[in-house]
Specification:
309 residues, alpha+beta, Ribosomal Protein S5, domain 2, Alpha-Beta Plaits, seven-stranded mixed beta sheet, four-stranded antiparallel beta sheet, 9 helices, 42% helix, globular, binds (R)-mevalonate
Length: 309
């Protein structure tokens, strides 16, 4: 007996961090990276096999608390005991790089367990369980990463409001680059909370402007204005840097992309490491930007075509 569950990575185009404060975000599913969890029947205690750990479930390390907790909560929902199966998690989403790997691990594992025990999983239940994992991983999640695990299309997301899917109607390419440095979403989210206590006016103004830029970016996408989208991305990166969630590596890659052909570039996700994105007019530019980013220190790049043919 065997069952699997999968989930995609995601890329936040605009609105990371400000989304925690009720501003909108625009995110896209990123199927170039994904997670697959497999549950197999064995006899005896449950085992866990993933990038960070191989061994008995009961001895999994603290850093996997979000995963182990969501497995326990899912079994509670399914009214099944923690025994007689193995869990294998395979991922091509780089962990802790702002691509939503923690939410995707949770979603893939919940889906695999529901498939294994042949129970129907509603979107509401998937979201509720994924959110438990995200609260442990990120402290105060907006719910964006959770929402993205069940979406096949780009989303315009505002915390606590119905999710709005929309078309990526923009003729451009996105180059995604990994700094190779582990991102620190929880710390970055906390640091903005602290900053908003120390300098409330400046922080609130920056967060509002990020929200405005996100709305403008959505219009630029809908009206196929890639050059304007690039400008909004650049402004968003400056504000995120001002809020203290960029770092040297991200700024270097952003500068390298802009010095090549990029229409715009910014960090994506939690920041302080992790990934950045650059917008390219066409495939040739995207290839040139990707090469420049690898030369400037990126450990990996992906090219993603936006819009329709
Ligand atoms: C993390 O992928 C996105 C953040 O905006 C945090 C959140 O939305 O919960 C940084």
């Amino acid at each position: 007996m065997k069952a699997t569950g999968t989930a995609n990575g995601k890329i936040i185009l605009m609105g990371e961090h400000s989304v925690v404060y009720g501003e909108p975000a625009v995110a896209i599913p990123f199927p170039a990276t994904s997670i697959e969890t497999t549950i197999k029947k064995i006899t005896g205690p449950v085992t866990l096999d993933c990038f960070f750990y191989h061994g008995p479930f009961s001895q999994a390390p603290e850093r996997l608390l979000n995963v182990t907790t969501v497995i326990m909560k899912t079994l509670e929902k399914l009214q099944q005991p923690l025994e007689n199966f193995s869990i294998t998690i395979k991922s091509t989403i780089p962990a802790e790089r702002g691509m939503g790997s923690s939410a995707a691990v949770a979603a893939a594992t919940i889906r695999a367990l529901f498939n294994y025990f042949k129970k129907e999983l509603t979107t509401a239940c998937l979201m509720e369980l994924t959110d438990i994992s995200e609260k442990i991983a990120h402290g105060n999640p907006s719910g964006l990463d959770t929402a993205m695990t069940s979406s096949q299309s780009p989303l315009f997301f505002i915390k606590g409001q119905p999710i709005i899917p929309f078309l990526l109607n923009v003729s451009a390419y996105l180059v995604v680059a990994d700094t190779g440095v582990t991102g620190q979403t929880k710390e970055a989210v906390n640091s903005i909370a602290l900053l908003s206590q120390r300098s409330p006016e400046k922080t609130t103004a920056a967060i509002h402007t990020l929200g405005k830029l996100t709305r403008q970016a959505k219009s630029a996408i809908e009206q196929n204005r890639p050059a304007d989208l690039g400008v909004y991305m650049n402004e968003a990166h400056h504000l995120l840097d001002f809020l203290g969630v960029s770092n040297k590596e991200l700024n270097q890659l952003v500068a390298a992309a802009l010095a090549t052909d990029a229409l715009g570039a910014k960090l994506t996700g939690g920041g302080r490491g992790g990934c950045m994105i650059a917008l390219a007019d066409n495939k040739t530019s995207a290839d040139r930007i990707s090469a420049a980013l690898l030369k400037a220190g990126a450990v990996n790049t992906w090219i993603h075509k936006m819009g329709e043919d």
